[in-house]
UniProtKB/TrEMBL annotation:
Signal peptide residues on this chain, from the entry's feature table: 1-19
BD-FAE-like domain span: 45-241
InterPro entries: AB_hydrolase_fold (IPR029058), BD-FAE-like_dom (IPR049492), GDXG_lipolytic_enzyme (IPR050300)
Keyword Hydrolase included in the entry's annotation: yes
This protein's name: Alpha/beta hydrolase
Transmembrane annotation, as ranges: none
Superkingdom: Bacteria
Molecular functions (GO terms): hydrolase activity
Length: 288
């Protein structure tokens, strides 16, 4: 009986060791581009236990083709793994593009993700994190969002009176959509974000491999070579573009790893999330 009680208490301790809180991204009610009936974007904080906290933060954006957010498969498990490693995680429920609920839908996910960086950086002391150790992780279309954040941080529609840097210190891209070029694009994501009638200028703007500079953050990329949903060439082109600009990049590819495996690839022994956490702890973003 005593062993059973002890086991239950141990399980309860594990379940309650990582505190969570959900915060409105725009507490003043001034939600950019919002129409009546718009979704309220939020950020959920996953805090590690005090004795394991490393002072590093990762903002997490689930995928879903810019039509939803796969938090149960991607975002929440990723946040859990990060907090277990002592990294504070912030899960962003960014708004998915919808002409009925917002103006300029193509700007909305980026604006919400930039707001998440702004919030975390401005509240670094509150969460006991280093304001220069804030990364961002994205899966699939969330990876496209994150790569856009990392290549276009100099442009924003946010109110940013404090001049807070919107550049993440590092990026983590998981089977990401990168390019909107006809030959590489995940057409569903492209249609949902921009629309069916995309111009050559818009293709260039939203193809992250074409927007890499020397200031693009160091990047960790993972994908399956057999991904039939988002061509692995998205990762290869982005990795090549980063190398051409001397931006540190780590590429972790699976021989087998179909799209959507989240933090655990059932077809592999080694898991990218463990390798990625080791990469984060090596602080590759401290090069400058």
């Amino acid at each position: 009986m005593h062993k059973i009680v002890a086991l239950l208490l141990a399980n309860l301790a594990v379940l309650t060791s990582f505190s969570q809180e959900k915060i409105n991204l725009y507490p003043d009610g001034q939600i950019p581009f919002a129409k009546a009936g718009t979704e309220i974007p939020t950020i959920t904080v996953f805090r590690p236990s005090k004795n394991t906290a490393k002072g590093t933060a990762v903002i997490v954006c689930s995928g879903g083709g810019y039509g939803g957010r796969a938090n149960k498969v991607e975002g929440i498990p990723a946040c859990t793994k990060l907090t277990e490693a002592g990294i504070t995680a912030f899960l962003v429920d960014y708004r998915v593009p919808n002409d009925q609920k917002m103006d300029h839908k193509e700007w909305v996910p980026l604006t919400d993700a930039q707001r998440a960086i702004q919030y975390v950086r401005e509240n670094a002391r509150l969460y006991k994190i280093d304001g220069n150790r804030i990364g961002i992780m994205g899966f699939s279309a969330g990876g496209h969002l994150v790569s856009t954040v990392g290549t276009q941080f100099f442009e924003t529609k946010l109110q940013n009176t404090k001049g807070t840097s919107l550049r993440p210190d590092f990026m983590i891209l998981v089977y990401p959509v990168i390019s909107f070029a006809d030959s590489l694009a995940h057409l569903g994501s492209r249609k949902n974000l921009v629309g069916p009638d995309i111009t050559s200028e818009e293709i260039r703007k939203y193809s992250s491999e074409l927007n890499v500079t020397e200031q693009t953050p160091p990047t960790y990329i993972t994908s399956g070579m057999d991904d039939k949903v988002v061509d692995v060439k998205n990762c290869l082109y982005f990795s090549a573009a980063l190398k051409q600009k001397n931006v540190p990049v780590e590429l972790f590819l699976y021989e087998k790893g179909k799209h959507g495996y989240g933090v655990f690839n059932k077809e592999a022994q080694l898991q990218w999330i463990d390798d990625c956490i080791s990469w984060i702890k090596r602080e590759p973003y401290k090069r400058k």
